Structures are given as structure tokens and as C-alpha cells.
Amino acid sequence: MVIVSDRALSIENACVNVLPWVTRGICYYHLQQNIIKTYGGKELMYLVKGAAYAHTLAEYNRCMDSLRAAHPELAAYMELADPKLWSRVHFPGDRYNIKTSNIAESINSAIKKAKGFPIPSLLQFIREMLGRWFYKRREDALSLQTPYSKGVEYILAIREHYAQ
Q: What is the pLDDT of residue 103?
């Protein structure tokens, strides 16, 4: 199991104390936002991204060497952030192509109203929200006249129109 998040100390502590078997990583999007805010280094983000997504140690070292030459403070920040947490080549778990936690960000946005709820109430809120979503999808599916989704039907209708 892998948990990818921002650099919040509370999440790090929870991973260490509650889920010690998981591998923790830093979300590249949040790391990028911190770098831009702190160092204003938009023009150097291609080097940061290159180091983060490098598939080989040589590629990672080349990007980091270029970053050290161009902006030593930013390179030091990246190394202080622990490359095992943000670099694909150093990551000890199965990071695959995780750039950001889009699914987690979407769920966070959807449950924003319930953020301060006690855990049982939060779980009830999530259960009801998912129930509404699945109910709507089921109703949409039952209303279809063909085996295709409304999106596919729309595309087919456009293609049929232009084919005539």
C-alpha cells in the first residue's frame, strides 16, 4: 500500500504510527506548488520534473546536477525533502506513474462540507454521497434506449450526421 500526500507532518506521523507497513510518498503537484511559492522557480521546473520522473539513476543525477548548478538552494530543498518520497527512481514502493492524488483530491473536494465531522458522521456522509452517485448512474443507465452510454450515443449521432 502506498500513501501519496503533501508534506504535512500529521500525515507522516499517522503513516509511521498507525500504518507502519505502508510506503509514503510526496505528491509531485504539492511539491511543485511549494517550490513555485518558495523559490519562484517556474523556469527550472523541467529539471525538478525530470528528476522526479527519471527512470534511471543516471537520468536523475543529470537533472539534479543541472539543478544544483542553476539553483543550489532549490536543489538542497529537494534533497532535504528526501528523494525516496518524491523521486520515482528512489521510491521504495510501487509508485507507477502517480503524479498527483487526483482521486483523493476529488473526494476531498466532494466531502469538504463534512471535514469537521466526527468519524462516524463523516463515514455516514460519504456513504450517502456515494449512494446518491450510484443511484443517479443506475437511473441514467436504465433510461438508455441502446446498450451505449449517452456520451457514446452523442458521438455516434455526430458521426452519423457528418457521414450523410
A: 67
Answer left, alpha or beta for residue 6, where phi above 0 means left and psi between -120 and 50 means alpha. Answer: beta
CA–CA separation, 52 and 96 (whole Å): 12
Q: What mean pLDDT is predicted for residues 6-28?
A: 81
Query: Which position has the grid cell 510501487?
Result: 94
Answer yes or no: is pLDDT of 5 > 90.
no
149: left (phi over 0), alpha (psi -120 to 50) or beta: beta
Residue 44: partners with Cβ closer than 8 Å, 6 or more residues away: 67, 70, 71, 74
* Pick from 57, 139, 47, 126: nearest CA to 90: 57
The pTM assigned to this predicted structure is: 0.57
Q: For the chain, what is the largest distance between any 2 Cα atoms, rounded to a whole number of angstroms?
A: 65
Taking the C-alpha atoms of residue 116 and residue 64, their distance in angstroms, rounded to an integer, is 41
Is residue 105 very low, low, confident or very high in pLDDT (cuts 50, 70, 90)?
Answer: low
Find, among 72, 75, 98, the residue nearest to 86 by Cα.
Answer: 98
Query: Taking all residues of the chain, what is their mean pLDDT, rounded to a whole number?
Result: 84
- Give the phi and the psi of residue 8 in degrees, each rounded to 5: -60, 130
Check residue 44 and report its DSSP letter: G
